[in-house]
Amino acid sequence: MFNKERWDEILEALNANKFRTFLTAFGVFWGIAILVLLLALTNGLQKGVVSSFGNFAANSSFVYVRGTTIPYKGLPKNRRFDLDLDDVEAIKQQIPEIKYVSPQNRLGGYMGANNVTRGSETGAFQVEAHVPDIINQNPMDILQGRFINESDLTEKRKVCVIGTGVEKSLYKKGEEIIGSYLKINGVNFMVIGIFKYSKSRGDQQEEVNTIVTPFTTFGQVFNFGDKVGWMAITAYDDVNITSLKPRILNVLKTRHTVNPDDDAAFGYHDISEDYARVNGLFAILTFVGYFVGSLILMSGIIGISNIMLIVVKERTKEIGIRRALGATPFVVKAQILQESLILTIMSGMVGISFAAGIIWLMNYLLDLSGPVDNFSNPSVSMGVVFTALIILVVSGILAGLIPANSATKMKPVDALRIE
Predict the structure, then answer these.
(1) pTM, whole model, 2 decimals?
(2) What residue numbers bound the domain in which 296 lies?
């Protein structure tokens, strides 16, 4: 435990040569600041890249048809076929590990020809066909009204939920939206809700200009029937969707008479694999951040160790007097170690504070400038700060260990003779 006299001695030793102490401390300050900043930037990059996936359930995949590439049972290659609602039911029944299977279709696009009218207002919007489960896979914030439900699906109601971009384009401020009607390709649909995606899936302009309709209604009104453009499949949390891929494809191959080896007949986008690759990449980048930051910090620690050796050399006579007056080697070693530890921790804490200030400034500028592609909210967790503190303590001990051992090896008589 430190007492006042010991603190006075430590402060006096550090103030004896302020410029030298500053240069020595700067190495540790800079090393720990670089370590924290590297980890914060890596974290910000990871958040930005992961956010580009949107809020879609990570344990999911998308399946769609590409066309056969291998002849099978008298059927030629390059054969096209469509997925249908029976495929959805077959996957649900034959693979119990599946939690949600959501068939989807799409019509038009916000950059295409005008396909939606309301009175004198017209616009080109993306019209999507969904089932209610999609909101569990790709969460949406319902700003007004409600989302489509099973009754809408069963009764094939002509209802829709619109994005915020549709609202701004077709409605004037203050107009009643819920219960109003839109014409989609000449067919009236009643607006039952306004939504926005909880997180962006990519093209934000496309997302806000989207209209969601019940899947069955869409199929009947726009002559799609039971055709499924693609389906979103989500597994239960304790099952990796990647492990279910062969079984999912086998169900579809059997139903559509596709060669068992013809995996290319179906497009299969596995979000789980994408997440795994991204997380693996950033695990490596985090390791690199720790490695590079630690190397820079190590140079500062070596500097402290060298300075403490010089300090021990300068205080050889003082150490000899202490030893002659009865100071044990442990007391002398503790004095040197404490000086090294205090210098390391003080400079390291200033470095952490400096890095925290830079991180705050980066987030402030990001808030002012708006979203940046693939970069978002750089930060470090308390675990990183705690790890940095442990590194500082260990580094301070290591920096003082060699000088402390050097001081205790000297005999008191020899130390007193040195001028």
Answers:
(1) 0.65
(2) 4-53+276-417
